[in-house]
Every structure is written in structure tokens, then in C-alpha cells.
TrEMBL record:
<feature type="transmembrane region" description="Helical">
    <location>
        <begin position="138"/>
        <end position="156"/>
    </location>
</feature>
<keyword id="KW-0472">Membrane</keyword>
<keyword id="KW-0812">Transmembrane</keyword>
<feature type="transmembrane region" description="Helical">
    <location>
        <begin position="54"/>
        <end position="70"/>
    </location>
</feature>
<keyword id="KW-1133">Transmembrane helix</keyword>
<feature type="transmembrane region" description="Helical">
    <location>
        <begin position="76"/>
        <end position="96"/>
    </location>
</feature>
<feature type="transmembrane region" description="Helical">
    <location>
        <begin position="7"/>
        <end position="24"/>
    </location>
</feature>
<feature type="transmembrane region" description="Helical">
    <location>
        <begin position="108"/>
        <end position="126"/>
    </location>
</feature>
<feature type="transmembrane region" description="Helical">
    <location>
        <begin position="30"/>
        <end position="47"/>
    </location>
</feature>
<protein>
    <submittedName>
        <fullName>Uncharacterized protein</fullName>
    </submittedName>
</protein>
């Protein structure tokens, strides 16, 4: 009983931090992407510290609470996309543990990451150009936006891996003891 209460309290703390980071994204405009990315990393923390189902529930709760509390709904939608990416790659990584050794898991994992990202990114880019850029983009700028998104994925993913392996691994003992 004590362990479940501790996990729920930990999830509540992460949920509060997630909403605070989303709100700060609207206040500190120069760091919006950084704060939204940091908020989405909490989904990965929840999955790795508990299990996938608890992480999915955490993600859903954070999106719902974000839409209820955060004034700028566009930031909540951006967080939802980033958090869904984390949720999906953590779920894929968990499922890939069942694959036979003959598969090159790292290569397959990166391919699946790119597929998931592009399933999220490309429809938003092509469907909501006027919302994102306040006008329709010409073909060269559209190609540049697609390429910039791919580079952004590499940076976002490397930062997430660094956060999980270096920063969170040092901090987790302080929160979970």
C-alpha cells in the first residue's frame, strides 16, 4: 500500500511540474520549446519509474489538465505532440525487448522514431501552415521546414536520451527514496 501511495504522490508532483512548465512556456516566450520539451520528458520519467500504463494515464491527465488550466492552448497541443512522441517511443522500446536477437534493434528503433515523428509532424506542417507561419509557404520554404523538423527531432531525441541517462539518473534517488 505504501509503495502505491508513494508512486501516486510522485505522479502528482510530476503532473504539477508538467503544468507549471507548460504555463511558463507562455510567460517566458524565448524558452517556450525548451520548457515544453522538458515538460514532455516527465512522461518518459513516469513510464520508466512505474510502467507504460501509468505513463499513458499520466500523459492523458497532463493533456486534459493542460487544456483546463493553461491559457495558451497552442502550447498544450505542442506539449501533447511531444509527449505522445515520448509515449510512443517508450512503448516501442518496451515492445522491442521481445524481438529475437537477429534484428538490429538500434537501427529499427531509429527508423520507427522517424516514422512516428513524421506521422505527427508532417500532417501538422502541411495542414496548418497558416496557423504556424501566418501564410502559405512556398515549396523551398516548405522543404526547409521539413528538413528543419528532421534536425529538430535529432536534437530533441538526443536531449531526451541525455536527460534520462545523466540528469534523471542522478536526481531520482532524491525523489524516490
Amino acid at each position: 500500500m505504501h509503495v502505491k501511495a508513494k508512486i501516486l504522490a510522485f505522479g502528482g508532483l510530476l503532473l504539477a511540474l508538467t503544468v507549471i512548465f507548460m504555463m511558463l512556456g507562455g510567460i517566458i516566450e524565448s524558452n517556450t520549446l525548451f520548457l515544453l520539451a522538458a515538460a514532455s520528458y516527465f512522461v518518459g520519467i513516469m513510464i520508466r519509474e512505474t510502467n507504460f500504463r501509468m505513463g499513458a494515464a499520466f500523459y492523458l491527465a497532463s493533456v486534459i489538465l493542460g487544456f483546463l488550466v493553461v491559457p495558451n492552448k497552442f502550447y498544450v497541443a505542442s506539449y501533447a505532440a511531444m509527449g505522445f512522441y515520448i509515449l510512443a517511443i517508450e512503448g516501442i522500446w518496451e515492445r522491442m525487448g521481445c524481438l529475437p536477437e537477429k534484428y538490429q534493434k538500434r537501427s529499427l528503433f531509429w527508423i520507427l522514431k522517424y516514422v512516428i515523428f513524421n506521422v505527427i509532424y508532417l500532417p501538422v506542417l502541411f495542414g496548418f501552415q497558416e496557423l504556424l507561419f501566418s501564410r502559405q509557404l512556398s515549396l523551398p520554404f516548405l522543404i526547409g521546414a521539413v528538413l528543419a523538423g528532421q534536425i529538430g527531432l535529432i536534437i530533441y531525441d538526443k536531449a531526451y536520451e541525455y536527460f534520462q541517462s545523466h540528469i534523471w539518473s542522478r536526481m531520482r534517488g532524491r525523489f524516490l527514496n
